[in-house]
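Inputs:
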Amino acid sequence: MAAILKLCGVFLKIGLVFFGGGYVLIPLLHRILVDQMHWFTLKEFLDGVALSQLTPGPLAMLATFAGYKAGGFLGALAATICIFLPCTLLMLLIASRYERFRRVDAVNHFLDGIIPAVVGLVFAAAVNLGVTSLTSVRDFVLLGAGFAVLQFTAIAPMAVILGAAVVGLLLHFS
Amino acid sequence: MEKEIKRVTLAEIAATFFMIGATGFGGGMAIVALIERRCVYEKKWLGHNEFMHGLAFSQILGPFSLNTSTFVGYYMRGVLGGVVASVSFIAPSFLLVCALSFLYFRFHQLPELKSALLGSNPVVIALILVAGLGMARKKAAGLESAGVAAIAFTASALFEVSALKILVIAGCWGLWKGWRTGRGR
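Outputs:
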């Protein structure tokens, strides 16, 4: 029970600072779950990102995966509710007064400042994750191929991740 | 602003968003487009303008696919409608992740699954890079923004400054910049 409460606290906090779209979660969650809490190894974190991409839901489904590891189904439920609670409440509040919020420029200015920072953080996360997890020529070949497919074709990320998994399976990666 | 708002049952909201949540592969913008098609064009629950306002606010905090669902639900049936829409939207993915997590934590020692996951890991990093590039092109073009992105990158990658601090500072910078241009007019 104490573990679940702690989980709720952590994910509420993440839910509160989850600005500017899903990908900011990668640096945030990586730092908190892997470096600070040691709930995940880096490998599990990457696997979790892959799994969350196999669903139609947002990347924040990573919270469900983290919760599941910490406390089974109940943990998954608690983590999911907590990470989405702040944004849902804010959205309900805004929706109820949106005629008035419409002209608040401050929101746009705040976001204009945050988005470039999110871009920098996302690249930093890719580098941090890459430095430790890309260990062989094979990994870099897959990275390059994946990058090319995702960047230059319209194939869905889910299909690309599954495709890479099949490659790993058929070539017996170990 | 007394506008005719269709009377929609909560069950219909739930069914609509559950279907969107179950079939909306492709993430983020693809889902928003799907919501727009179902709710604005097919069911005519709300107008295109209202939808666009909702979308603008959706980008503040959290995933905008979920927030857009909440907004549409609220627009139709108030707080209850908003909660029903967001829960229905998330439910399919939630169940799917639970099932996948169960399989993962039970079987990830299997050599076959290990191989498959090792194949997927570099692609996950590619995905993050592509996402970053896409955002950079759309939202961080221009010298000043690129500078902020570079500073955030350096602070996070080399000096391990926490992401939260970086975000708050960047947000304040945005506010200050907005305030300055506002005053200059």
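Remarks. Residues 1-107 of chain B form one domain. The helical segments of chain B are 10-23, 28-42, 48-58, 64-107, 111-139, 143-157, 163-184.
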